[in-house]
Structure formats: C-alpha cells, structure tokens
Design brief:
Oligomer: single chain
CATH architecture of the largest domain: Alpha-Beta Complex
Number of strands: 6
Helix content: 40-55%
Structural class: alpha+beta
Largest sheet: 6 strands, antiparallel
Number of domains: 2
CATH topology of the largest domain: endopeptidase fold (from Nostoc punctiforme)
Strand content: 15-25%
CATH class of the largest domain: Alpha Beta
Strand order of the largest sheet: 5-1-2-3-4-6
CATH superfamily of the largest domain: PPPDE domains
Length: about 250
C-alpha cells in the first residue's frame, strides 16, 4: 500500500440503540449482574464520509445518517491511507462484508469498524463494544431478549444509505423489487422506487447495447464502403460488350 505524506483523522462514531421501555437495563442487571442499556452501533468517519456495515457496506454524510447524532465520538488517530487506498481495501472486504453476510452475533457493524480501524490506524475499537452481542446471547437474559435482537438484526440488514459497491445495490434491488408471481406487480411499499429502477435498468441495457453494437456498425460500414469502392473500379470491365458485325 502506497503511503502519502497527508494525514487523515479517523473517528469511531458510537450510536446507542436503546430499548424503548428500559426493559433491557432492568433485566440485564437482575440476570447478568451487569447493566446493559441496549446495543451499540458503530461507524467509521474518515475522508469526510461515514462508513458502516448493515445492508452491505454503506456510506453517508457524517452525522446525517438515519442513526442521527452519535452518543460518543472517539478520535482513533491519524491514518496515512488516502481515499483511493481505502477504497481498494474496501473492495477486498466486499466478499465478506456484503448485503448477505450481516449477522448480529459475530459479523456486524462493530466487527466491520474494528477491522477498518485496525487497517487505518493499527488500533482496535473498545473490546466491550465488539464482544457485547455474543456475550449477551450466551446468557439466559440474551435468550429471553432474542426476539428483540432479531428485530434489531433485521433493521440493520435494511439500513438506509448509499452502498459503497454497485454489486450490493444491484443485489438489493433483486430482493427488494421481486415481482409477485401472480399479479406480476412490485411490492406495494416499494412500487414507485422499483418502477423507477426498472426504467433505469432498461435505459442502462439500451446504452450498453448501443455501446456494444457501435464498433460492429463501424466495421460493417467500412466493409460496405470497401465493397462499393471495389465495385466502382471494376464496373467498366464488367459491362456487357456489344459486338458490331460488318455488313457484307
């Protein structure tokens, strides 16, 4: 990885996903002897953008995502990795951190933040944040809270934001915009979005087809021009000859 002289600050944004009625805090203290108010969500703020893992790797404007304002922001340090190098690193992560691999217990936003921080500044995020989901689920309390945790997991699999990679956005559209086998209609809640995406997809296919056919048309025109030129030069010899017989 090529290092540059420019240093970029890296931040860990820590968001608090609180249980609405405080049930998690009350039960955790009784069943675990440790107060757990809710579940943490984290993201990485670097190069003027905020990155997180949910519906694949996603990116947004720092502190203006659906998660609102972070409860805490930790300055993790300075990185010499430029934005181009960071994008190359994310491409290597994509096979593991994509739209189909999120798991609340052991492959979540905090695992993503931890790996990214290690790459950028050679430092892990706080261990208690990373270990919390598996630590909770290993207890009776965690099993009791499992339905709530599953709801949270589904929400994280559908977070709003731009996908870092088009392949994740395309995969999402295939799931989100699957037509009903009977009515052939898109899901009602996403119909406007899906119809617009379908139009865009058709336009993209047309443009792709035009781009692929353009060289073939050029070759065809060249061949036609050459053929016409050849016919032109051989036109005179090819004309039928009229023989005039001398009268006797």
């Amino acid at each position: 990885m090529e290092k540059k002289d420019t240093h970029h600050l890296s931040f860990l944004n820590i968001y608090f996903k609180q249980n609405s009625d405080g049930l998690a805090a009350a039960l955790s203290e009784q069943l675990m002897g440790k107060k757990i108010d809710g579940i943490w969500h984290t993201s990485i703020h670097v190069h003027g953008k905020e990155y997180w893992f949910g519906r694949g790797m996603q990116v947004g404007i720092p502190r203006k995502t659906q998660f609102g304002q972070p409860k805490e922001v930790l300055q993790m340090g300075e990185t010499e990795v430029d934005e181009e190098g960071f994008q190359e690193y994310l491409e290597k992560l994509q096979p593991r951190y994509n739209i189909g691999t999120y798991n609340l217990t052991n492959h979540n936003c905090n695992n993503f933040s931890d790996e990214v921080c290690m790459f950028l500044v050679d430092k892990n995020i706080p261990k208690d944040i990373v270990s919390l989901p598996s630590e909770v689920l290993d207890t009776e309390f965690g099993q009791a809270m499992k339905p709530m945790l599953e709801v949270f997991e589904n929400r994280m699999k559908n977070t709003k934001g731009h996908n870092v990679f088009e392949k994740d956005a395309t995969m999402l559209d295939k799931v989100r915009c699957k037509r009903d086998k009977d009515t052939k209609q898109f899901p009602e809640e996403d119909r406007d979005y899906c119809e617009e995406r379908a139009k865009q997809h058709i336009q993209e296919l047309r443009e792709q087809m035009q781009a692929e056919l353009k060289p073939l048309f050029a070759v065809g025109l060249q061949a036609l021009a050459k053929s016409l030129a050849n016919n032109g030069t051989s036109a005179t010899p090819g004309l039928p000859h009229h023989h005039h017989h001398a009268s006797t």
